[in-house]
Structure formats: structure tokens, C-alpha cells
Design a protein that fits this description.
Elements: H1 2-7, E1 12-15, E2 18-20, H2 28-38, E3 43-45, H3 46-53, E4 63-67, E5 71-73, E6 76-80, E7 88-91, E8 94-97, H4 99-110, H5 113-120, H6 126-135, H7 142-150, H8 159-171, E9 177-184, E10 187-195, E11 200-204, H9 213-228, E12 232-236, H10 244-252
Parallel strand pairs: 4-6, 11-12
Antiparallel strand pairs: 1-2, 3-4, 5-6, 7-8, 9-10, 10-11
Helix pairs in contact: 3-4, 4-5, 4-6, 4-7, 6-7
């Protein structure tokens, strides 16, 4: 029956022995299920695992499965690797790596984007990411993973924050904290960068950050709450945070390099 439907064009071959309707060939969930059927003893890693575990909107151009054999087909790949059981989640018959191992796996090629997302969603910590990296031992790409994890040591939640952190370290600023939690006026906030002793905060705003009226109002309330509580705020963007003017602003607020 399957071959008959395939000859009629009502089914197409997605993987060896696995078919789907033509209109669902690019459906990421169909492709993830197909990869699981193709390698039932494998474990989904990378973007597919991140999508299932903590990042539902991330695109998955290629489904990667950790398996005892390596193979590559259009849109699918298996890598010869067996993740440690403590980092594997099983849900509805699908096995995939947990948030920490998924993010660390991707750090070899994504400059820490997945780590930022996992930290922002608070599904991973620096300790859990370190343990995940240790579980990979001598895997290819670990040098890059170690570099990215080291650059994550102050808890960045975006690529903009990551670059801001790198600039602060390079410029010689110390004593600051990334995504520092404060509670003021009954509200809990996380400051992108905070110098707690001086009550100085640096907030990074990416392009298109204030996309709705509600978001703009929330930013205004947040800013006003913090200023009223004695925090002095600097707001920066991609074009500002590497400018010498930031050094002048910080100096005027009593923040100097070591």
C-alpha cells in the first residue's frame, strides 16, 4: 500500500522505509518523529533536542541524532556518540538531550546563542552547563565550547549582553554582575549588568526591542521603579556600547577600571 501511494505521489520518501505526505515534508515535528523512527535507539541532539526541551520556536534545518553509527541524508544526520544517561530525557517515546547538553552541543557552532536562551529561560545554570561539557570528554568542537562557556560566566541572556560582557572584561571593569536580580516596589527585575555596590546598571536594548505598547510601558515602569529605588541607569545598544562615551558615563558615575 505504501509503495502504491508513493507511485501515485500521495506519499514521498523521507528516510529509508519512512514516508510522509508531500505537503508535510518540511514539517519539523514530522521530521523529528521520522528521525526517531529511523534511529529508534538514538538520541536527538542539537536544535531538535532544544526545540523539544526548552526552545519551541527555534528552526531545525537539520535533525541530528546521536547514534552508534554515522550517516548523512538531506536534512538528517547521525553522529557517532552516546550521551550519558543522566543527560537524556524520554518523552512520548522520543529521546533527546536535556537543556544543558543541548545548549553545550550547539555552542561549538552558534557562538553561545543556545546557552543564552537556556540561561534566560532558567532551564540551565553555569554549573549544569559545565557538567554537560565534562560529560562530552574529547568530543570534536570542545575547545570552542569551552571558550563560549567561559565567556558565559556572568550569565548573558542574549548576544548583545554577551558582547557587552566581553567589552567590560576587556576594558578592565570588575565587580559587576550579569542579570543581577533586584526587587523594588513589589516587582522583581533582572539587570543586564549591575555594579551592586554603586547601584549602577547598564541595560542593553537591541533593535526592535520595544515592539508593542505594552512592552514600552513595562520598560518605563521598570526604569522608573529602579531610578526611584536609587539605581542609576545607562541604556546602550549595538552602536553605543563599544563607544568611548560609555567609559565617560561610567567614570561620571564613579565606575572605573581596575
Amino acid at each position: 500500500m505504501v509503495r502504491y501511494l508513493a507511485r501515485q505521489g500521495r506519499l514521498i520518501r523521507l528516510l529509508p522505509g519512512i514516508f510522509c505526505e508531500p505537503g508535510r515534508r518540511c514539517d519539523e515535528h514530522v521530521r523529528i518523529v521520522a528521525a526517531t523512527a529511523w534511529r529508534p535507539d538514538g538520541v536527538l541532539v542539537g536544535l531538535a533536542a532544544a526545540k523539544l526541551g526548552f526552545w519551541p520556536k527555534v528552526p531545525v534545518p537539520e535533525v541530528v541524532v546521536a547514534h552508534q553509527s554515522a550517516a548523512s541524508l538531506p536534512g538528517f544526520r547521525t553522529v557517532r556518540w552516546v550521551p550519558k544517561p543522566e543527560h537524556v530525557i524520554q518523552r512520548a517515546g522520543v529521546r533527546f538531550t536535556d537543556a544543558s547538553l543541548s545548549a553545550i552541543w550547539l555552542a561549538a557552532t552558534d557562538e553561545g546563542v543556545a546557552i543564552d536562551e537556556a540561561l534566560r529561560r532558567r532551564v540551565a545554570t553555569l554549573d549544569s552547563l559545565t557538567c554537560a561539557l565534562a560529560s562530552m570528554k574529547s568530543a570534536s568542537g570542545n575547545a570552542e565550547r569551552r571558550r563560549v562557556l567561559h565567556e558565559s560566566r556572568e550569565n548573558p541572556w542574549s548576544q548583545g549582553e554577551r558582547r557587552l560582557h566581553a567589552w567590560l572584561f576587556t576594558a578592565g571593569y570588575r565587580g559587576w554582575k550579569g542579570n543581577y536580580p533586584v526587587t523594588v516596589n513589589g516587582h522583581s527585575y533582572f539587570l543586564d549588568v549591575a555594579f551592586p555596590g554603586e547601584k549602577v546598571a547598564i541595560e542593553f536594548d537591541g533593535l526592535g526591542f520595544h515592539q508593542t505598547r505594552e512592552q514600552l510601558l513595562a520598560v518605563h515602569r521598570r526604569q522608573n521603579d529602579l531610578v526611584a529605588a536609587g539605581w542609576r541607569m545607562l541604556r546602550v545598544s549595538w552602536t553605543l556600547f563599544e563607544s568611548p562615551v560609555i567609559v565617560d558615563w561610567l567614570r561620571s558615575l564613579g565606575i572605573r577600571t581596575t
